[in-house]
Design brief:
The chain contains 19 helices and 15 strands. It is an alpha/beta fold and about 500 residues long. It is globular and about 65 Å long.
Length: about 500
């Protein structure tokens, strides 16, 4: 069995476990660092120990997938908080050259984020002052960008003056100086691509928007990519927590010398041009990037396709899953879920081709209408891939790699288990249970959204029980059930849940 080394973006299941789970049932073993040397949200991982582990493991590995945010800063959240000097970061980055010196045949894929700039004030994953001035920092960045483009309105100029008076300059200086340092490291990583020490790089943008500090940083990075002439080896598009899945798929496709062809179908034609929540460009452009980044190609016809990707999205006014009760005509009349599900069944049962569903109709959770239709048609566990969690890119970068791996290895038990995880988490937790527990249970316990009672407290027990009820009501049928083997709250908050699930096929008695 060939070995692929993974340095995850952080210790949460979406980064630490998903790529490993996707590799189950293949001839590739994905190994990750010992959990105890990874970080814990704002506590950075042991960078030196992670580097030492990586140097040892690459000796007999076929490839390595590297989160540079972990190897430089200790994780995704520490990358937004660190006080490291440029010299320290540069010395850490030089270690990348050692990887191919240790193993010249090693394939090195990496990713390094452009630091996000949330629209809201919260210090949960940002510096403490972001809890007081986060919105102002974001808006100042947006207006500065528009001023550079000479498109700032008079109202925005007045807003800028008010923000300048309110926002302590030392906070803005701290925030922007760290951004500048991180962008400098991104450019150094691009340099490593240009000289062959990194074979392929993705620069994802977490919580992106068309204007602001993140968009300004994109311009600098894109210019450097052009100057180094590495545009075919460095991709830049929205995303973050899903990128290791994408790179795993790309690496497997490379090792197998295959390029899966993916035919696209949308639940609404206008969905191609919708700009998803937390992103900066039309959905269709990101979908194309996600497919080629995973090692595939967009097919021009169904005939040449290895599988079909159905993208579920409205043509405009995308909502969060918690707002699904507010959906309007964009969801109910301007898209056709029924036709998409009929189409999926026809492709699978008549054309004998596989179907992957990217459920990006809502941010931060699945479309329960779609789930109900898929269950009614008996298609939930006939799919080659499904996802519907967090951002559009998080979802795309999970279901597309799953579909590509399924293309090579089929409907293994591990594939079905990963489908069961997606329905439990994306539809069950993100779609229903999270909101219900926050509204009905946490107030009685004196807790809140950002304050659960630890990783494995009473909250996780309540979540598990509610998920079991959800599965019985919305997913399971007379042939299939799902067992929840583990349920915990990785960062002791409600945003994400850590789950381990497995599918159980029930025995049926044939009538005589």
């Amino acid at each position: 069995m060939a070995k692929i080394v993974l340095i995850p973006l952080d210790e949460r299941p979406c980064n630490f476990h998903f790529p490993v789970a996707l590799s189950f049932g293949t001839e590739y073993e994905v190994i990750v660092p010992p959990f105890e040397i990874m970080g814990n949200k704002k506590e950075k991982g042991d960078v030196d120990a992670i580097w030492a582990w990586a140097r040892k493991e690459v000796q007999d590995a076929s490839g390595i997938i590297v989160s540079f945010d972990t190897l430089l800063y200790g994780g995704i959240v520490p990358s937004r908080l660190h006080m490291e000097t440029t010299d320290t970061l540069q010395k850490r980055l030089e270690n990348v050259r050692m990887l191919k010196q240790i193993n010249p045949a090693l394939v090195v894929f990496g990713y390094s984020l452009i630091m996000r700039n949330p629209t809201y004030s919260s210090a949960d994953e940002e510096p403490d002052y972001y809890g007081l001035f986060g919105r102002e920092i974001h808006r100042r960045g947006v207006i500065e960008h528009k001023r550079l483009l000479k498109i700032a309105s008079s109202e925005e100029e007045k807003e800028y003056e008010a923000i300048t008076l309110k926002l302590p300059p030392e906070h803005f200086e701290d925030y922007t100086s760290r951004r500048a340092k991180n962008i400098q490291m991104n450019m150094k990583i691009i340099d490593l691509v240009s000289v062959g020490f990194v074979d392929f790089l993705i620069i994802p943008q977490d919580d992106a928007s068309p204007y602001g500090l993140t968009a300004i940083d994109q311009i600098s990075v894109r210019k450097h990519i052009d100057e180094k002439k590495v545009g075919m080896k460095v991709y830049m598009y929205p995303g973050a927590d899903e990128v290791a899945n994408t790179l795993l798929s790309r690496m497997i496709n490379r090792f197998k010398d295959k390029t899966p062809n993916v035919f696209l179908k949308y639940t609404s034609e206008g969905a191609k041009m919708v700009i998803p929540l937390y992103e900066d460009r039309p959905l269709h452009e990101t979908v194309k990037y996600q497919i080629i980044a995973a090692g595939g190609m967009v097919a021009s016809s169904m005939v040449e396709a290895d599988f079909v990707l159905i993208v579920n999205a409205p043509p405009s006014n995308m909502l969060n899953a918690s707002q699904s009760h507010l959906r309007g005509i964009e969801y109910d009349a301007f898209r056709n879920l029924t036709e998409a599900v009929v189409y999926a069944g026809y492709v699978i049962r008549t054309l004998k081709k596989q179907v992957v569903i990217a459920d990006v109709a809502y941010g931060n959770g699945a479309d329960l209408q779609l789930i109900a239709l898929l269950k009614a048609e008996g298609l939930l566990f006939q799919l080659a891939g499904y996802a519907g969690w967090n951002t559009s890119s998080n979802t795309l970068g999970t279901c597309i790699p799953q579909g590509m791996i399924h293309h090579h290895y089929g409907s293994t038990q591990d594939h079905l288990d990963f489908l069961s995880l997606r329905y439990t988490e994306d539809a069950g937790y993100c779609g229903i249970v999270r909101q219900a527990v926050c509204a009905e249970e946490l107030p009685k316990m004196g807790l809140g959204y950002f304050q659960a009672d630890g990783k494995r407290g009473r909250v996780s027990e309540i979540v598990k029980k509610r998920l079991e009820i959800f599965l019985k009501d919305h997913i399971e049928d007379e042939t299939t059930s799902i067992e929840i083997l583990d349920c915990h709250m990785p960062w002791s908050r409600m945003f994400e849940v850590g789950l381990k699930t497995r599918i159980i096929r029930k025995q049926t008695i044939e009538k005589i």
